[in-house]
Design a protein that fits this description.
The protein is α/β, with parallel strands linked by helices. It has two domains: about 1-80, no CATH class; about 80-125, no CATH class. It is about 30% helix and about 15% strand. The protein is built from four helices and four strands. It has a four-stranded parallel β-sheet, with no helix packed on it. It starts with a strand and ends with a helix.
Length: about 120
């Protein structure tokens, strides 16, 4: 399965990500090796009225053919939500407890330790 989650930002963040699962996508800039920018390829960047839809349009027109599934998260609304008790998590997937610790330390970097498998395990719970 080819999957990518785009972490959408309006400005270059202090911490950007480019992994197999996550990629930062920044409005109003050209991409680098550290993040994607919505000024590259087919885009609607000149029309600021579209706000976050700029990212979705950019992915649709330029990247969608590479993936079976795509997702988006906003830099202020991170994707992972953790409502399971620690005892349930430790029984089902102890690696998620490590993720929980990373998330608690820095909410702006929740995806650094998330692999495709960990992400799938999380959603299966």
């Amino acid at each position: 399965m080819r999957m990518k989650i785009f972490s959408c930002h309006h400005a270059v963040a202090q911490d950007t990500i480019m992994t197999d699962l996550f990629s930062s996508l920044i409005s109003g800039v050209h991409g680098t090796q550290d993040y994607l920018g919505d000024l590259d390829g087919d885009n609607i960047a000149s029309d600021n009225d579209h706000s976050e839809m700029r990212h979705q349009y950019y992915v649709w027109k330029n990247l969608l053919h590479r993936f079976d599934y795509v997702g988006f998260e906003h830099y202020r609304r991170v994707l992972f939500t953790d409502i399971q008790s620690a005892s349930v998590v430790s029984r089902r997937n102890p690696e998620l407890l490590i993720f929980r610790g990373h998330f608690a330390q820095s909410i702006s970097r929740p995806y650094l330790c998330a692999s495709h498998q960990l992400f799938s395990d999380f959603w299966m719970m």
